[in-house]
Structures are given as structure tokens and as C-alpha cells.
Amino acid sequence: MTRQHGEAHGGSHVYQAGGDLTVVHAPTGGVPDRVWNVPPRNPNFTGRGEVSARIRSALSTGVVAVHSLRGLGGVGKSQTAIEYAHRHAADYRVAWWVPAEQPDLVPGHLVRLAAALGVPEDEHALPRLWSLLAEGSDWLVVFDNAERAGTLHPHLPPGGHVLITTRNTGFGALGNVVDLDTLPRADSVAFLRKRVEIADAHADALADLMGDLPLGLAQAAAYLEETATPPADYLDLLRARGALPPAGEVVGYPHTVATAWDLSIVRAQESEPAVLAVLRLAALLGPEDIPIDLMSTLFKGFTPTLGVLVRHGLVRRVGDSFSVHRLLRARLRHETRPEDFDAVVAFLRAGLTAEQGVDGPEPRERARRLLPHVWSVADFAPPDPELDEVLAFARRLWRVGR
After folding, report:
1. Is 0.70 topped by the overall pTM?
2. 166: alpha, beta or left, given left = phi > 0 and alpha = psi -120 to 50?
3. Other CB atoms closer than 10 Å to residue 262's CB: what's the count?
4. Range of the domain at 276
């Protein structure tokens, strides 16, 4: 790879390698006193103050500290890591961003860090780099979008601060892990109001439709800004479509919500082909509290399939149930096939049948959990006699349990 460089003010050097800008401040004849290639700060970044404080606290606990940010695609892992680096820029002499999605390319990014620090680019570059950095702890390496802890582990430095972003589980073996959730509603509304002129009520409604997902909010704000669409009209469009919303361009992010999740699904299918069938069924149900035991009656070997879905950040498991994000449901509902409706009716019939009776706390609890899923399917499914039977029995259970 060709590296271009030029002289900057004050004895600094600016290296351009591919799409990365590396700023190196070096006293004449000495080791550079500052090396930085972290992407630019997002001026519209909102919230996550508590997460940033937790990262700082965790990274300050030892000689070498590894901290991972984990979450579904579009939840803002990379943006949070960028914000952390800029917020604490004064604490780091070296801050280096490593795209880690392709493990084979990670050593090359680290060799470029070695070169920026004046280490010769040869077979001894990485050992010399770690030796040089071991002299201090004022440096940060961010491995962005890592896939597996095992493939990243050989490339971890022996000291300093390491921050990892990932959609996948399994990184607890390397250090602390924080599961990054969607934004609190107040932060979602604040983000939208920072980006576009929008009333609080419209911002709250839009945040609800986006499931408070940062990338979804950013795409919505970009669309409103690019098209000058009134927020009320955009909300009407979203409600009428029943699918993923039209999206504006989000600077600095290569994927839309749809393509980000498509990539995760493809990778999950490589190890468990049944994941798409499970997701398609789950998309027809309500977004929360999908009973795992009933899914197990429909899908042989459901437990490992669920594990793959959790590992790739496509669902969230809580106790004996799991949930699917609202926007992922919308993405999958847009591709629903007739056999998916057959499967979801079989799922509901397995949990709600007349043979199970209506008396006692057990049927009522079952009805309480399944009724949101029944209504969700009924709102979307075509007319079906078997579904009508399930609806009638669900209503009966609901009346008995009131």
C-alpha cells in the first residue's frame, strides 16, 4: 500500500494510508510524541456518558486493560468508541484505530502503527512495537467490529488500553464487556432535535418507531434533512409502509440498518442454517417475551440456533424468553412468505389450544404471555380459519383471566 506524507505545521507529519489519516507529532530526531488515527468526532453524538465513564474506570484498573463494547448492528458501538477516544484524547500519546472485521488484515494495521512510531517495517516490526509501547501506559488501541475473540487474541498488545467493538458474544475471555443497549428515549429525542427541526411529540413518536436505535434515528434525521419532508408526513409514511423506512445517508457509516443486519444474518447462517427461519417466524410475533419452550416445539435443535442468534446480536435473551428489535422485525416482515404464516399459526396453536382448558392460573399466565403475539399476527396475517380459531380461544382465555 502506498503511503503519502507531507510536512505539517510545527514539525508534525501527516500520513495518508488508504482512507486513514494518521497525524504524527514528532520532535526533531526523536520518537513521535503523539500518534493518532481515530476517526473524526461525531458532532451530533448524544448520551452514553455513563458508558464512557464505565469504560474509563474499567481501562484504568491495570497495566493492560481490555474492554469490549457489544451490541446489535446500528446501536452505536463504533461511535461510542470514537467519542471515548476524543473525550480522553489528552490522556493518550498514542490512539490507534484498527478495523478488525477481517482478522488477516489486523497485523497490517498494527505494522502501520509501528511505522508511524518510527519502527522499521520488517518481520520484527510488531515485537519492536510492543516493546516500545511497553515503556508507558498512555496509549489506546481500538479494534473495531471484531468477529471472534479467539482470532483477535493473538494480536492484543501486552500493555496499555484496548477497546474492542463487536456484535458477537464470547469476548468476556479477553476482559470486561459492556452490552450497549438502544438509547434512552430522552436521548433519542435530544438527538433528533439536535439534527432537525422537530416537535417533541413528533420526535418521541419517531424514536418509538425506530426502537431508539441510533443508526435508525440517524438515517431518519438524514432523510428529513435531505428531503425537507415534514416530520408528520414522514411518520405517516412509516406507519403506512409497515417496513423499514426510507433512509438518508449517514456520514461515516458504510451500511444502512437493513444491510447491517443482513450481514449478521449471513454470518449466522454459516454456522446455523435455521436462523433465518426462526427470525422470520419471530418477526411475525410481538417484539418482546417470545417463549423459548414453545419455539423448541417447532424447531428441532432450537437451543443451539438461539445461541447463534444471541452470539451475532440478532436477538436478546432474557431468562426463558427472547426478543427481536422492532426494525429487524420490520425488515423481515417485508419478506414474509406463506409458509411463515403457517409456522406462526402452528406456534400459537401449540400454546393456545382448547384441550388445555381455561381454568386455573397456568392457562391464564400462558394467555397473558401469548396474547401480544396473537394480536401481532392477527394485524399482519391474511385471513386464515386456523388463526381465527386461535384468536377466538385467546379472547376466551383473556376474558376468563380478567
Report:
1. yes
2. beta
3. 14
4. 257-401
